[in-house]
Amino acid sequence: MKNKITISTIVMFLFYSFATLAQTIKWEDRMNGDNSVAGLQARGWVILNEDGGGSSAPWFQGRVSVFTSFEGPDSGYVASNFNGANTNDVVDQWLISPILNINVGDSLSFLARSPDSSSFDDSIFVLLATNAGTTPSDFISLGRFLVSKNGWQQFYWISEINATIRVAIRYYLFDAQTNADYIGLDLIQVYTGATYPSTIAINKSFGFTNVTQSSSYRM
């Protein structure tokens, strides 16, 4: 029996292989400029290095030698990697958006990936601050998601609130030597007017005993 997810009643991220959606862009950062910490901060991003260590910057310009961007110049994405871990093997890097004004039905979208066929299970948390705050305690988690090892993967969140917010993407792993490698983020957008199918049929049964299935499903 197929399980159905009704889009309009879910506040979560979904993974789509199609992106032909009618939409009006309200805000975007294509990550095609300077993605050093200073460059990101100049565009209104807030960077937190919550693990307090690391031999590299918490977020940095995409490295063409690892993979190229989804669009724009080859290095036009922002990246983070295991070199941000502290001496306790914890990596905890936050990329917090500028202040965003959203309405019911607006969508947040971004793309993420790890190196193709990586042996490491990189993952990200996506969080929301409805008070537009910039400290970790201001945020609630929308879920933890494994990052694609097979090219760029697009993530969507559909808003059910009218609010002034910030969104955070948190690269957090407490066992960096085992599960951290390298992640890239690209084409982060907020838009209105997108249309989605009213239901999605999932031809698979699954439970919530596996943490990787507890808050998302790959389409």
Question: What structural keywords apply?
Answer:
219 residues; mainly beta; Jelly Rolls; seven-stranded antiparallel sheet; six-stranded antiparallel sheet; 2 helices; 5% helix; globular; disordered C terminus
Provide a descriptive summary of the structure in words.
The strands form three sheets. Strands 2, 3, 5, 6, 9, 12 and 14 form a seven-stranded antiparallel beta sheet that branches. Strands 4, 7, 8, 10, 11 and 13 form a six-stranded antiparallel beta sheet that branches. Strands 1-15 form a two-stranded antiparallel sheet. It has 219 residues and is mainly beta. The chain has a single domain, classed as Jelly Rolls (Sandwich). 5% of the residues lie in helices and 39% in strands. It is built from two helices and 15 strands.
Secondary-structure blueprint:
Blueprint lengths: L2 E4 L6 E4 L7 E6 L7 H6 L3 E4 L10 E2 L16 E4 L9 E6 L3 E3 L4 E7 L9 E7 L10 E7 L6 E6 L4 E11 L2 H4 L2 E11 L6 E4 L17
Antiparallel strand pairs: 1-15, 2-12, 3-14, 4-7, 5-6, 6-14, 7-13, 8-13, 9-12, 9-14, 10-11, 10-13
Spatial extent as radius of gyration? 17 Å
CATH-derived topology: Jelly Rolls
Q: Write down the oligomeric state.
A: single chain
Stretches where pLDDT is under 50 for at least 5 consecutive residues are 1-12, 15-20, 202-219
Overall pLDDT score: 84
The biggest sheet amounts to:
7 strands, antiparallel
The secondary-structure class comes to mainly beta
Note the beta-strand portion: 35-45%
Number of strands: 15
CATH architecture identity? Sandwich
By CATH reckoning, the class would read: Mainly Beta
Shape: globular
Portion of residues in helices?
under 10%
Span between termini: 17 Å
